[in-house]
Design a protein that fits this description.
Elements (H helix, E strand, L loop, with lengths): L9 H7 L8 E5 L5 E5 L5 E4 L2 E4 L10 E4 L5 E5 L3 H7 L9 H10 L7 E5 L5 H10 L4 E5 L3 H15 L6 E4 L18 E6 L8 H7 E11 L2 H14 L2 E7 L6 E4 L2 E4 L9 E7 L5 H25 L10
Parallel strand pairs: 7-8, 7-10, 8-9, 10-11
Antiparallel strand pairs: 1-2, 1-6, 3-4, 5-6, 11-15, 12-15, 13-14
Length: 318
Protein backbone atom coordinates (compact mmCIF):
# COMPACT_ATOMS: atom_id res chain seq x y z
CA UNK A 1 0.00 0.00 0.00
CA UNK A 2 1.29 3.47 -0.89
CA UNK A 3 1.70 6.03 1.84
CA UNK A 4 0.00 9.34 1.15
CA UNK A 5 0.82 12.86 2.21
CA UNK A 6 -2.76 13.94 2.94
CA UNK A 7 -5.32 13.04 5.63
CA UNK A 8 -7.46 11.33 2.97
CA UNK A 9 -5.07 8.38 3.18
CA UNK A 10 -7.68 6.60 5.29
CA UNK A 11 -9.51 5.87 2.02
CA UNK A 12 -6.76 3.43 1.10
CA UNK A 13 -7.23 1.59 4.38
CA UNK A 14 -10.98 1.36 3.78
CA UNK A 15 -10.42 0.10 0.27
CA UNK A 16 -8.36 -2.76 1.65
CA UNK A 17 -11.35 -3.58 3.85
CA UNK A 18 -13.54 -3.57 0.68
CA UNK A 19 -16.12 -1.18 2.11
CA UNK A 20 -17.57 1.76 0.18
CA UNK A 21 -17.16 5.14 1.91
CA UNK A 22 -17.89 8.76 0.94
CA UNK A 23 -15.24 10.24 -1.36
CA UNK A 24 -14.37 6.95 -3.02
CA UNK A 25 -14.55 6.35 -6.74
CA UNK A 26 -16.51 3.29 -7.81
CA UNK A 27 -18.09 1.89 -10.97
CA UNK A 28 -21.59 0.59 -11.57
CA UNK A 29 -21.54 -2.16 -14.21
CA UNK A 30 -24.65 -3.22 -16.15
CA UNK A 31 -25.38 -6.64 -17.64
CA UNK A 32 -23.68 -5.68 -20.90
CA UNK A 33 -20.45 -4.88 -19.08
CA UNK A 34 -20.73 -1.11 -19.48
CA UNK A 35 -19.12 0.93 -16.70
CA UNK A 36 -20.56 4.06 -15.12
CA UNK A 37 -18.22 5.98 -12.80
CA UNK A 38 -19.28 7.94 -9.75
CA UNK A 39 -17.69 9.43 -6.64
CA UNK A 40 -19.67 8.62 -3.50
CA UNK A 41 -21.16 11.55 -1.62
CA UNK A 42 -23.66 11.31 1.21
CA UNK A 43 -27.08 12.50 0.06
CA UNK A 44 -26.20 12.48 -3.66
CA UNK A 45 -28.18 10.58 -6.29
CA UNK A 46 -26.92 8.62 -9.32
CA UNK A 47 -29.15 9.03 -12.38
CA UNK A 48 -29.18 6.73 -15.41
CA UNK A 49 -31.74 6.41 -18.23
CA UNK A 50 -34.58 7.78 -16.10
CA UNK A 51 -33.67 5.62 -13.09
CA UNK A 52 -32.03 6.71 -9.86
CA UNK A 53 -29.93 5.25 -7.05
CA UNK A 54 -29.11 7.02 -3.81
CA UNK A 55 -25.42 7.11 -2.90
CA UNK A 56 -26.52 6.39 0.66
CA UNK A 57 -27.64 2.94 -0.51
CA UNK A 58 -24.03 2.24 -1.54
CA UNK A 59 -22.13 3.73 1.39
CA UNK A 60 -21.12 1.01 3.82
CA UNK A 61 -21.76 -1.80 1.32
CA UNK A 62 -18.98 -4.23 0.32
CA UNK A 63 -17.16 -4.29 -3.00
CA UNK A 64 -19.08 -6.44 -5.51
CA UNK A 65 -22.54 -5.55 -4.18
CA UNK A 66 -25.54 -6.05 -6.48
CA UNK A 67 -27.74 -2.92 -6.44
CA UNK A 68 -31.16 -2.18 -7.88
CA UNK A 69 -32.12 1.15 -9.40
CA UNK A 70 -35.50 2.81 -8.89
CA UNK A 71 -37.22 0.99 -11.76
CA UNK A 72 -35.69 -2.41 -11.15
CA UNK A 73 -32.54 -2.35 -13.27
CA UNK A 74 -29.74 -4.25 -11.54
CA UNK A 75 -26.07 -3.32 -11.60
CA UNK A 76 -22.91 -4.45 -9.82
CA UNK A 77 -21.01 -1.90 -7.71
CA UNK A 78 -17.24 -2.45 -7.73
CA UNK A 79 -13.99 -0.67 -7.05
CA UNK A 80 -12.50 -0.11 -10.52
CA UNK A 81 -9.24 -1.77 -11.37
CA UNK A 82 -6.49 0.59 -12.47
CA UNK A 83 -7.21 -0.29 -16.11
CA UNK A 84 -10.93 0.34 -15.70
CA UNK A 85 -10.32 3.59 -13.85
CA UNK A 86 -7.99 5.03 -16.46
CA UNK A 87 -10.53 4.47 -19.23
CA UNK A 88 -13.26 6.34 -17.34
CA UNK A 89 -11.34 9.06 -15.49
CA UNK A 90 -11.47 12.71 -16.60
CA UNK A 91 -8.76 13.42 -19.12
CA UNK A 92 -6.87 16.39 -20.47
CA UNK A 93 -4.55 14.52 -22.80
CA UNK A 94 -5.22 11.16 -24.46
CA UNK A 95 -4.66 8.38 -21.93
CA UNK A 96 -2.62 5.26 -22.57
CA UNK A 97 -4.62 2.06 -22.97
CA UNK A 98 -4.25 -0.59 -20.25
CA UNK A 99 -2.56 -2.89 -22.80
CA UNK A 100 0.22 -0.32 -23.22
CA UNK A 101 0.47 0.47 -19.50
CA UNK A 102 1.01 -3.22 -18.79
CA UNK A 103 3.73 -3.56 -21.43
CA UNK A 104 5.49 -0.40 -20.21
CA UNK A 105 5.71 -1.75 -16.66
CA UNK A 106 7.16 -5.06 -17.88
CA UNK A 107 9.52 -3.87 -20.62
CA UNK A 108 10.79 -0.90 -18.60
CA UNK A 109 11.13 -3.38 -15.72
CA UNK A 110 9.62 -1.04 -13.14
CA UNK A 111 10.48 -2.62 -9.79
CA UNK A 112 9.72 -1.84 -6.12
CA UNK A 113 12.06 0.90 -4.95
CA UNK A 114 12.89 2.17 -8.46
CA UNK A 115 13.65 5.83 -9.16
CA UNK A 116 11.63 6.67 -12.28
CA UNK A 117 11.62 9.81 -14.40
CA UNK A 118 8.46 10.39 -16.43
CA UNK A 119 7.89 13.13 -19.00
CA UNK A 120 4.45 13.84 -20.41
CA UNK A 121 2.30 13.24 -17.32
CA UNK A 122 -0.87 13.96 -19.30
CA UNK A 123 -3.97 12.70 -17.47
CA UNK A 124 -1.99 10.63 -14.97
CA UNK A 125 -2.72 7.08 -16.16
CA UNK A 126 0.94 6.13 -16.58
CA UNK A 127 1.88 7.96 -13.38
CA UNK A 128 -0.63 5.86 -11.43
CA UNK A 129 0.77 2.65 -12.91
CA UNK A 130 4.34 3.70 -12.10
CA UNK A 131 3.45 4.65 -8.52
CA UNK A 132 1.89 1.27 -7.82
CA UNK A 133 4.92 -0.51 -9.29
CA UNK A 134 7.65 1.42 -7.41
CA UNK A 135 5.88 1.08 -4.06
CA UNK A 136 6.72 2.90 -0.84
CA UNK A 137 10.48 2.79 -1.35
CA UNK A 138 10.46 4.20 -4.88
CA UNK A 139 10.24 7.64 -6.44
CA UNK A 140 8.41 8.99 -9.48
CA UNK A 141 9.40 12.40 -10.79
CA UNK A 142 7.20 13.75 -13.58
CA UNK A 143 7.72 16.71 -15.90
CA UNK A 144 4.64 18.31 -17.48
CA UNK A 145 4.69 21.60 -19.37
CA UNK A 146 0.93 22.25 -19.39
CA UNK A 147 -0.59 23.34 -16.10
CA UNK A 148 -4.08 22.14 -17.00
CA UNK A 149 -2.80 18.63 -17.74
CA UNK A 150 -0.85 18.53 -14.49
CA UNK A 151 -3.89 19.64 -12.48
CA UNK A 152 -6.10 17.01 -14.12
CA UNK A 153 -3.48 14.32 -13.50
CA UNK A 154 -3.10 15.21 -9.82
CA UNK A 155 -6.88 15.18 -9.31
CA UNK A 156 -7.15 11.78 -11.01
CA UNK A 157 -4.34 10.39 -8.86
CA UNK A 158 -5.84 11.79 -5.66
CA UNK A 159 -9.31 10.49 -6.54
CA UNK A 160 -8.03 6.95 -7.12
CA UNK A 161 -5.50 6.70 -4.29
CA UNK A 162 -7.26 8.88 -1.75
CA UNK A 163 -4.36 11.35 -1.62
CA UNK A 164 -1.12 12.33 -3.31
CA UNK A 165 1.63 9.79 -2.50
CA UNK A 166 4.77 11.16 -0.92
CA UNK A 167 6.76 9.22 -3.55
CA UNK A 168 5.43 11.50 -6.33
CA UNK A 169 6.84 14.82 -7.50
CA UNK A 170 5.27 16.59 -10.50
CA UNK A 171 7.09 19.67 -11.81
CA UNK A 172 6.15 22.23 -14.42
CA UNK A 173 9.27 21.74 -16.52
CA UNK A 174 10.22 20.86 -20.09
CA UNK A 175 12.16 17.62 -20.48
CA UNK A 176 13.45 18.83 -23.85
CA UNK A 177 15.52 21.37 -21.91
CA UNK A 178 16.99 18.88 -19.45
CA UNK A 179 16.31 16.42 -16.62
CA UNK A 180 18.56 17.99 -13.96
CA UNK A 181 16.99 18.24 -10.49
CA UNK A 182 19.02 20.83 -8.65
CA UNK A 183 16.53 20.81 -5.75
CA UNK A 184 16.29 16.99 -5.62
CA UNK A 185 19.85 15.66 -6.07
CA UNK A 186 18.99 12.49 -4.13
CA UNK A 187 16.70 11.37 -6.98
CA UNK A 188 19.58 11.22 -9.46
CA UNK A 189 20.58 9.16 -11.27
CA UNK A 190 17.32 7.50 -12.27
CA UNK A 191 16.84 3.78 -12.77
CA UNK A 192 14.31 4.33 -15.54
CA UNK A 193 13.34 7.09 -17.98
CA UNK A 194 9.82 6.73 -19.40
CA UNK A 195 8.61 9.20 -22.03
CA UNK A 196 5.18 9.87 -23.50
CA UNK A 197 6.19 12.85 -25.61
CA UNK A 198 5.87 13.85 -29.29
CA UNK A 199 9.67 14.18 -29.74
CA UNK A 200 11.41 11.78 -27.33
CA UNK A 201 14.63 11.93 -29.38
CA UNK A 202 15.19 15.43 -27.99
CA UNK A 203 15.39 13.94 -24.49
CA UNK A 204 17.95 11.25 -25.39
CA UNK A 205 21.04 13.46 -24.72
CA UNK A 206 19.64 14.35 -21.28
CA UNK A 207 18.79 10.71 -20.55
CA UNK A 208 22.44 9.78 -21.05
CA UNK A 209 23.42 11.73 -17.93
CA UNK A 210 20.19 11.15 -16.00
CA UNK A 211 20.17 7.34 -16.27
CA UNK A 212 22.48 5.07 -14.33
CA UNK A 213 24.47 2.45 -16.20
CA UNK A 214 22.19 -0.50 -16.87
CA UNK A 215 19.12 1.72 -16.61
CA UNK A 216 16.29 1.52 -19.11
CA UNK A 217 15.00 4.14 -21.53
CA UNK A 218 11.45 3.71 -22.87
CA UNK A 219 9.41 5.92 -25.17
CA UNK A 220 5.83 5.69 -26.43
CA UNK A 221 4.94 7.34 -29.75
CA UNK A 222 2.11 6.76 -32.26
CA UNK A 223 4.00 6.90 -35.58
CA UNK A 224 6.96 5.20 -37.25
CA UNK A 225 8.72 8.47 -38.24
CA UNK A 226 8.85 9.33 -34.53
CA UNK A 227 10.29 5.89 -33.81
CA UNK A 228 12.94 6.35 -36.49
CA UNK A 229 14.06 9.69 -35.06
CA UNK A 230 14.21 8.21 -31.56
CA UNK A 231 16.22 5.15 -32.57
CA UNK A 232 18.63 7.32 -34.58
CA UNK A 233 19.18 9.54 -31.53
CA UNK A 234 19.77 6.51 -29.30
CA UNK A 235 22.31 5.06 -31.73
CA UNK A 236 24.00 8.41 -32.29
CA UNK A 237 24.49 8.88 -28.53
CA UNK A 238 26.58 5.64 -28.42
CA UNK A 239 25.36 5.27 -24.84
CA UNK A 240 22.47 2.88 -25.47
CA UNK A 241 22.31 -0.73 -26.65
CA UNK A 242 19.73 -3.53 -27.00
CA UNK A 243 17.36 -1.14 -28.76
CA UNK A 244 14.00 -2.76 -29.44
CA UNK A 245 10.71 -1.43 -30.89
CA UNK A 246 7.32 -3.14 -30.90
CA UNK A 247 3.57 -2.59 -30.67
CA UNK A 248 0.84 -4.49 -28.84
CA UNK A 249 -2.57 -5.49 -30.21
CA UNK A 250 -5.39 -6.66 -27.95
CA UNK A 251 -8.34 -8.77 -29.10
CA UNK A 252 -11.04 -10.11 -26.80
CA UNK A 253 -12.90 -13.38 -27.34
CA UNK A 254 -16.61 -14.08 -26.93
CA UNK A 255 -17.22 -17.31 -25.00
CA UNK A 256 -20.88 -18.34 -24.68
CA UNK A 257 -21.36 -22.06 -24.32
CA UNK A 258 -20.33 -23.70 -27.60
CA UNK A 259 -20.28 -20.35 -29.37
CA UNK A 260 -16.62 -19.34 -29.29
CA UNK A 261 -15.29 -16.60 -31.55
CA UNK A 262 -13.09 -13.50 -31.48
CA UNK A 263 -14.90 -10.23 -30.89
CA UNK A 264 -15.69 -8.24 -33.99
CA UNK A 265 -13.82 -5.23 -32.59
CA UNK A 266 -10.34 -5.06 -31.15
CA UNK A 267 -7.90 -2.53 -29.71
CA UNK A 268 -5.40 -2.37 -32.53
CA UNK A 269 -2.55 0.05 -33.04
CA UNK A 270 -2.25 2.75 -30.39
CA UNK A 271 1.49 3.35 -30.37
CA UNK A 272 5.03 1.99 -30.57
CA UNK A 273 7.22 1.25 -27.59
CA UNK A 274 10.97 1.70 -27.99
CA UNK A 275 13.19 0.28 -25.25
CA UNK A 276 16.96 0.66 -24.79
CA UNK A 277 19.58 -0.07 -22.12
CA UNK A 278 22.03 2.56 -20.85
CA UNK A 279 25.57 1.20 -21.26
CA UNK A 280 29.14 2.44 -21.27
CA UNK A 281 29.98 4.50 -24.33
CA UNK A 282 30.15 2.21 -27.34
CA UNK A 283 33.05 2.46 -29.77
CA UNK A 284 32.50 1.98 -33.48
CA UNK A 285 33.55 -1.69 -33.34
CA UNK A 286 30.97 -2.44 -30.67
CA UNK A 287 28.27 -0.71 -32.70
CA UNK A 288 29.27 -2.66 -35.79
CA UNK A 289 29.16 -5.88 -33.78
CA UNK A 290 25.64 -5.12 -32.55
CA UNK A 291 24.50 -4.22 -36.08
CA UNK A 292 25.97 -7.45 -37.44
CA UNK A 293 24.26 -9.47 -34.71
CA UNK A 294 20.94 -7.85 -35.56
CA UNK A 295 21.51 -8.56 -39.24
CA UNK A 296 22.25 -12.21 -38.54
CA UNK A 297 19.12 -12.46 -36.40
CA UNK A 298 17.01 -10.90 -39.15
CA UNK A 299 18.48 -13.30 -41.69
CA UNK A 300 17.77 -16.26 -39.41
CA UNK A 301 14.18 -15.12 -38.89
CA UNK A 302 13.79 -14.71 -42.64
CA UNK A 303 15.08 -18.27 -43.21
CA UNK A 304 12.56 -19.55 -40.65
CA UNK A 305 9.74 -17.74 -42.41
CA UNK A 306 10.80 -19.23 -45.76
CA UNK A 307 11.00 -22.71 -44.26
CA UNK A 308 7.52 -22.41 -42.76
CA UNK A 309 6.05 -21.37 -46.10
CA UNK A 310 7.68 -24.31 -47.89
CA UNK A 311 10.30 -22.26 -49.72
CA UNK A 312 13.34 -22.91 -47.53
CA UNK A 313 16.24 -25.29 -48.11
CA UNK A 314 14.42 -28.12 -46.31
CA UNK A 315 11.47 -28.02 -48.68
CA UNK A 316 10.94 -31.68 -49.70
CA UNK A 317 9.23 -30.61 -52.93
CA UNK A 318 12.51 -29.31 -54.32
Amino acid sequence: MLSVATPEGFLLECRLMSMFLPGQRLHLVDKKGRHYALTLKAGAVFEHSGETLSHDDLIGKPDGTMVQLSRGKKMIAVYPTLGEYTLKMPRGAQVLYPKDLAMILVWADIFPGARVFEAGVGSGALTLALLRAVGEGGQVVGFETRDEFARTAMKNIERYLGGIPSQLTVLNRDAYEGIALGDRPEAMPFDRVVLDLPEPWRVVPHAVSALRLGGIFLSFVPTIPQVMHTVEALERSRAFALIHTFETLSRSWNIQGRSVRPDLRMIGHSGFLTVARRVEKLDSDAQDLESNAEGEEDAEQGWVRETRTGEGPNDSRR
